[in-house]
Design brief:
It is a single chain. The protein contains 13 helices and 42 strands. By secondary structure, it is an alpha/beta fold. Among the domains are: 113 residues, no CATH class; 84 residues. The protein has a 31-stranded mixed sheet that branches. Strands 30-33-36 form a three-stranded parallel sheet, with no helix packed on it. The chain has a two-stranded antiparallel ribbon with strand order 5-6. The longest helix is centred in the C-terminal third of the chain and has 27 residues. It is elongated, with a radius of gyration of 30 Å. 45% of the residues are buried.
Length: 666
């Protein structure tokens, strides 16, 4: 409704018309109306408490073409401010203590009310990761994955965490009210019970059973939809999200662009940008961006995930029946589980690792990214680095940006989609050096090695060292070529000047704050500033995360430069054209070698065994034709074509730089 509108008392003739239309009130003097109010558009309405009414001239047409004039019919309104062109009809119980803005539609509902003072889900403590509540996160309506990550996992910085929680408490108090809001252009249809909910503009609520203590942060660019059979208690849902199909939610934050449906059940969990949950169950999980679970019998519990796809029947165990459910698990970005997988918490799974089978021992693969963790005869077998050559890994990295459902112009989560980054490459350096150390400690060449309750076969270890080195060479070469692109150099001094980083913030360790990749020292500085009071608002913290995300490529070169110097054995201030050419040659070989491995991995999808089940009523020729009609042929496949083009483009890019650098005068 328009807060600046002028309201007046009802005239005697208007009261007579309202009474003739079946309207009732014990205190007509408490009913205020706008200047153009027409009582004919109110029928069978009971008014109690303080009421403000707008004017009703708009005609609504539903999806079936049926038209209805705005106005109020068959309803009891108590302490409500009703805007203009609102349509309210057939309210079984009442609407109480609500500001209802212009052009809202509310039809066929039971009870919509604000009861007592509510913060509308803000300040709700979500017992994430640890079911006992020791890592609880207080949610608010602009909570980012990165802020939640710090609150949940940086308990060693207890002063900073306490300061952030105090900021959330202050915000919670600031939005607390005994009056709810249904913002403009919202539609609430066929709902039973809505209590203490704040609705943002343009959301659609259709057929829910219960909404209790929450906020629906919708917007015109990216409306929220909450649908049939949903029951939600103590929650916040952000723009662009969909919750439907009898989904059950209790104490959850649902970030932008999420989809939860098909009887999904979640409690004490956080879901951030573009998560999807269907059929299964979540309990105390931290679902970072792009956490996806599609299948029945899949339980995600007491773990942190991101860019993750859970196979059917995936399960984890977070307690050993002694001190309760106190154990947690970490699956770093890009990890996957296959059907019927099981992991015993506590455990930590490194980035882009595929977990197959059931693992009954606690393990840590965080220093060995891009691996396969396989179960064979109750033994956990680790195959390091092999996922780098999987075409599925590359396909995943390419699809995530394309599947960003967020249309809200203001993105809460700052998501870095890079497959190779200082975060994952740092892990490759650790993995390479760790495998070399494991081999040296074992002495003579061994057929297998034991590490952290896992078995690594000798050939897998050797291949892992090679794969990590290949990935390292590719990333460092990428950074070097990007740094030198489109520039001419006359002397080595010119080259050395360009190679020197302008900023030093990127050196040292990097971390993944649930989608945001940043230097550890920058994160530590943020926490220092929070503790000192230099940063003292949630908006300022959000601004810092945006700054970190925008500064990624500036800082990335500082980190890559530091690693290039270690690999080359000398500082960039002494690099020559020969050093650069040598590195570019290594880069070209790494890129081509990886692409060839991806090419061969893609070919497996088109071999004879892959055609099993095709050409159901024919011989080999029909099987081949049927397969090609459904899957296409190998050479014309989009992914295969992209790999071939990538080899050509990257080879040309490397050759161009070598030619340009070769002109430098020694």
């Amino acid at each position: 409704m328009n807060p600046s509108a002028n309201y007046r008392n009802l005239s005697d003739s208007e009261i007579i018309t309202l009474k003739a239309n079946g309207c009732r009130s014990d205190e007509w003097e408490r009913v205020k109306v706008s200047g153009k109010f027409d009582p004919v558009h109110c029928t069978n309405v009971t008014f109690s408490g303080d009421i403000k009414l707008g004017e009703y001239t708009k005609i609504y047409t539903d999806d079936s073409g049926v038209t209805t004039r705005s106005g109020i019919s068959n309803a009891h309104l108590h302490n409500c401010n009703i805007g203009s062109n609102v349509l309210i009809g057939n309210i079984g119980d009442y609407i109480a203590n609500y500001n209802i803005e212009d052009e809202v539609v509310i039809k066929n509902c039971g009870k919509i009310h604000t009861q007592g003072k509510s913060a509308f889900g803000n300040g709700t403590e979500v017992a994430v990761l640890n079911e006992t509540g020791s890592r609880s996160v207080k949610i608010w309506d602009r909570l980012s994955a990165h802020e939640a990550y710090i609150i949940a996992l940086y308990r060693h910085r207890f002063k900073a965490v306490q300061k952030i929680e105090e900021m959330v408490d202050d915000y919670t108090r600031s939005v607390s009210s005994d009056t709810g809001t249904i913002s403009r252009n919202t539609k609430i249809i066929n709902c039973r019970d809505i209590r203490n909910i704040r609705f943002g503009p343009y959301c659609r609520i259709d057929g829910v059973i219960r909404l209790n203590e929450g906020s629906v942060i919708s917007c015109k660019d990216d409306p929220v939809f909450i649908g049939q059979g949903v029951i939600m208690d103590h929650f916040i849902v952000c723009s662009g999200s969909i919750v439907t199909d009898s989904t059950l939610i209790d104490k959850c934050f649902i970030g932008q662009g999420c989809v939860l449906g098909k009887h999904y059940s979640a409690e004490n969990s956080l879901f951030f940008a573009n998560c999807a949950g269907f059929h299964g169950e979540a309990c105390s999980i931290f679902a970072g961006p792009y956490t996806v679970t599609h299948h029945k019998s899949t339980l995600l519990i007491a773990g942190i995930f991101s860019f993750m796809n859970a196979g059917s029947g995936s399960n984890q165990s977070n307690h050993m029946y002694k001190l309760g459910p106190i154990h947690q698990g970490i699956m770093e970005r890009g990890s996957k589980t296959t059907s019927d997988s099981y992991v015993l918490w506590p455990a930590r799974i490194g980035p882009f690792t595929l977990v197959m089978g059931r693992h009954y021992k606690n393990m840590d693969t965080s220093s060995l990214p891009f691996s396969y963790l396989i179960e064979s005869n109750d033994e956990s077998i680790l195959v390091p680095g092999v996922n780098l050559r999987s075409v599925g890994t590359i396909r995943d990295a390419q699809k995530w940006p394309k599947r960003d459902l967020r249309k809200d112009p203001v993105k809460i989560d700052q998501v870095n989609f890079n497959l190779l980054s200082p975060y994952t490459i740092r892990k490759m350096f650790e993995g390479r050096d760790l495998l070399v150390k494991i081999r040296s400690v074992a002495g003579a060449v061994s057929s297998s090695y034991t590490y952290n309750n896992m078995l690594i076969k000798g050939e897998s270890l050797e291949r892992g060292i090679q794969m990590y080195q290949t990935g390292i060479n590719k990333f460092l070469g990428n950074s070097l070529i990007k740094r030198l692109e489109n520039l001419e150099f006359k002397t080595n001094a010119d080259l050395q000047k360009r190679l020197m980083p302008e900023k030093s913030e990127g050196d040292g360790e990097w971390v993944d704050l649930a989608g945001l990749i940043a230097p550890q020292k920058i994160v530590d500085k943020l926490l220092d500033d929070i503790e000192s009071g230099k940063i003292n608002s949630l908006a300022a913290i959000e601004k810092e995360f945006i700054y970190m995300h925008k500064s990624y490529y500036d800082w990335e070169w500082a980190w890559a430069c530091e690693r290039l110097e270690k690999e080359a054995g000398k500082p960039v201030s002494r690099f020559t054209s020969g050093d650069v050419i040598n590195m570019v040659d290594k880069w070209k070989k790494s890129v081509i070698d990886l692409d060839k491995m991806l090419y061969e991995d893609a070919r497996k999808e088109f071999n004879l065994s892959s055609r099993t089940g095709f050409g159901i009523d024919g011989g080999e020729e029909i099987k081949k034709l049927d397969f090609e009609q459904v899957r296409g042929d190998f050479e014309s496949n989009g992914v295969v074509y992209a790999i071939q083009e990538h080899i050509i483009q990257k080879s040309a890019l490397g050759d161009e730089l070598i030619e340009r650098i070769s002109k430098i005068r020694e």
